Amino acid sequence: MKLRVIRDDLQYAALLEQAKELAISDPSPDSEEAERLAIISVLLEKYEEERFKLETPDPIDAILYRLAELGLKQKDFATIVGSRSRASEILARKRGLTIEMIRAIHEHLKIPAELLIAHPRDRDVDPEDLDWSKFPVREMKKRGWLDSDLAQGKTGEDLIRSFFARTSAHHAPVLLRKTLTGVQNEESRYAIYAWVARVLVRARDLRKVDVRYVQGSITDEFLRQIAKLSRSPDGPLLAREFLAMKGVTLVVEPHLPKTRLDGAAILDDGAPVIGLTLRYDRVDYFWFTLMHELIHVQRHLGRQHATFVDQDEMSNDEEKELEANIYAAEAFIPRQIWKSSDAYRTRKHEAVIQLADTLMIHPAIVAGRIQRETSNYRILKELSGVSGIGKLFQVSTQGDEE
Hints:
Largest sheet: 4 strands, mixed
Number of strands: 4
Family: Belongs to the short-chain fatty acyl-CoA assimilation regulator (ScfR) family.
Radius of gyration: 25 Å
GO molecular function: core promoter sequence-specific DNA binding
Mean pLDDT: 83
InterPro entries: Antitox_HigA (IPR039060), Cro/C1-type_HTH (IPR001387), IrrE_HExxH (IPR010359), Lambda_DNA-bd_dom_sf (IPR010982)
Oligomer: single chain
Protein name: ImmA/IrrE family metallo-endopeptidase
Domain HTH cro/C1-type: 63-116
């Protein structure tokens, strides 16, 4: 039997049995059986490294364990991080650790700094601990998200529970059991849960049932192809179709008031979903936000991080957000080309057009990069103004007044 790379647990079990039989037979060192046993051992070891790799310990779990080990209470931890409210939010995974906090925790609790800087793993949220009155029921009714036929005689909590049940085949608010990576504002959390659920409901209606997403199919070359679609007036719709062919569903759904939400990347039973709000109806904003979420799909979405939410605030996973920004910019304009371009040096209208033509991307993307890097949104406004992308997706954009 020819030996091959192990692909699944069944193949692993079969080869493990072969290895046991060969080991029991105690073959001579120069025999074919000994050679076969050596190769099988390498294959088994390789598979075990990938299949059973140890995860980095969670920093919050480490803090809780160390506090218990030392017989300390939450009030003791509060003296380390500065206040009771701060300690409560950290241990509840609602607040990230600052450099100063990491130093203090390392000094007082003797927890290795490299463990403390690891990102906390998502933890289940118990729906029974939620304050159902905080969901924006009135706005959800106004937008037609809630079933009007069920509204008669129902409480707001009943309506919200029914709404979330639609996101689960098992009629339970499964979405609520997941932490949304990127949400820092506690006041907006409930509205963002509702928005994400709405995106999932729409994604399931739009999804191509005959196309399955394959991990690794969002390559750098594919991202460059998406970038070039920005040249076309119908580029956003073409991008939606291109993504659908890869098993990625794109949904445009305006943000709820006071969430300042840009978009999200969600893993829905193995199928990536990208939600965009079009909070700003500009060409460069649409394409950069789409690419940012695609980088999350390509590099970050997985079992530990099933949902990335991007708000106009500092994320609680700064490293991954920074990486998404860097790679999104690179997909449109490679850094080496950017630094040597006339557009970068002169910031002139003609130079922007020339670089956009060379890279076959929309000039607004080049103009938008200059605006972001200089923090000057007054220059090149003629190239990055209102786009009308909302009309393409037949949604009403709300701007940033809320």
